[in-house]
Amino acid sequence: MKYHIVQLGCQMNISDGERVQQVLEGMGFVPTDNEAEANLLGVIACSVRQKGIDKVYTMVNKWNKSKNNKNLITFVSGCVLPADREQFLKLFDMVFPMSDLPDFPNMIKQYGIVTPAGLQSLDEGLKDLKIAEPVSANPKELTLAPVEPITGQKQTSLLRPDAGIRDFWHISPKYGSGFEAYIPIQNGCNKFCTFCAVPYTRGREVSRPSSEIIGELKDLVNNGYKSITLLGQNVNSYGLDKKSDELSFAELLEEIGRFGDDSKRDFWVYFTSPHPRDMGDEVIEVIAKYKCLAKQIHIPVQSGDDSMLVRMNRKYSMEKYRGIIHSINRLIPQATIFTDIIVGFTGETEEEFENTRKIMEEFKYNMAYIAQYSPRPGAASSRWADDIPKDVKKERYHKLTEELMKHSLRYNNNLIGKELKVLVRGKDRKEGYLSALTEGKIIVRFASENESLIGEYALVKISSAVPFSTEGELVSIYEQSSSMAGSQA
């Protein structure tokens, strides 16, 4: 029997999907890229934007039509708002929060599916899976009732997004790459930004034990992984839910940095996403101190106007945010800086938008993920009027993009003539070229059809640049003992 999963949204959803694949393949299912061949179809959903949820509805309606011609089971998990969940219960065969993934085999078993691994004993087929025994949740933490296994009846109970998340982390993922990997370190969010649905889809902040994080990272590095990203909704609030019992985020990075120095192995560690409210100099100082901690920081700003930040409930001022950027520039001058921005949020005036454009000019971001605001049911701002016309949002989006392109091109032009260390990630869209990333996540393409370079470090001399990417010539395969030619990028 075959399965096909569609993963939507952020890197956290991709990481979650890797654990779903591990569970399914532990039951004997075989992956397929062709959904027409699949007996089990699933989607890891994203409620951040309506467009993502619309895709889910389109897919499941198509899948349900296919049931007229074949035996097919469907499921949905991931970031799902309660309102969408109630509708999904009518359309999907199984709906569950990601924290209930350890119980997925039992759900499938109780649904009446005979899996390849379960022909004799489902439990025997799963004996090698690293799934912890269920632990009882703290009743004080519960806000929604837990999911019940789905049988012939459509289930109608609400789901507790973060109950059982510790068991979920005990599932060893099926990594989607042999040289890049994601490690979840934290789940959920306590910030309640007015535009965001994450606290309602993933629950409150829960930190994964640091011993598990360090153990997974060491295993990855020892198996040759070269790019590792620590994931969480607010990574720099890591440990705050376990004060005095767990490391802080800066201390976690320090442990990783020490391991990197001691291991003598060559790898880059990234993290996403931090929240400016919890970002202090101690994190930046640790990144500056250790070679393996990548000199690239993604620090969402969302708006450059203090009044707008209050309406967004971001709980920091532009003075606070500006101090973070200044610390990065002072302590890690070679670092690239990425951000997130929303245009057209409820009530955004021309002056407020202009303040956002000004901070893009001031901070000269290497990359900004710019979103045109759309309300999400469940988020606080969904009760407010979406009063900025679509054409105004689009115009503001294009203005910020033009500003971003200007600074990206200027930065990339300064790389011309330099030899940079890059990690080759795959074939480029340009025929006969490979695509790579610098430590600062600047795209570099170079002429080569040698696919054995994928997953390796190389030295590339930059010869030309455009906004958001560069092109160069392969100098050599990077050897760990060779000197770091050129500056960081």
A few lines on this structure:
With 489 residues, this protein is α/β, with parallel strands linked by helices. The protein has helices spanning 11-26, 50-66, 82-91, 104-111, 122-125, 165-169, 198-201, 210-222, 249-263, 281-289, 306-311, 318-331, 350-363, 390-413; strands spanning 2-7, 30-31, 40-45, 73-78, 94-95, 180-184, 186-187, 206-207, 227-231, 268-272, 296-298, 336-343, 367-372, 419-427, 433-438, 443-447, 457-466, 469-477.
Kindly describe this structure.
The chain is α/β, with parallel strands linked by helices. It has four domains: 1-168, Rossmann fold; 175-293, Transcription Regulator spoIIAA (2-Layer Sandwich), CATH 3.30.750; 295-413, Transcription Regulator spoIIAA; 416-477, Nucleic acid-binding proteins (OB fold (Dihydrolipoamide Acetyltransferase, E2P)), CATH 2.40.50.140. 33% of the residues lie in helices and 20% in strands. It has 14 helices and 18 strands. The chain has helices at 11-26, 50-66, 82-91, 104-111, 122-125, 165-169, 198-201, 210-222, 249-263, 281-289, 306-311, 318-331, 350-363, 390-413; strands at residues 2-7, 30-31, 40-45, 73-78, 94-95, 180-184, 186-187, 206-207, 227-231, 268-272, 296-298, 336-343, 367-372, 419-427, 433-438, 443-447, 457-466, 469-477. A five-stranded parallel sheet has the order 2-1-3-4-5, sandwiched between helices. Helix 9 (249-263) links the parallel strand 9 and strand 10. Helix 9 packs parallel to helix 10, helix 10 (281-289) runs parallel beside helix 12 (318-331) and helix 13 (350-363) packs parallel to helix 14 (390-413).
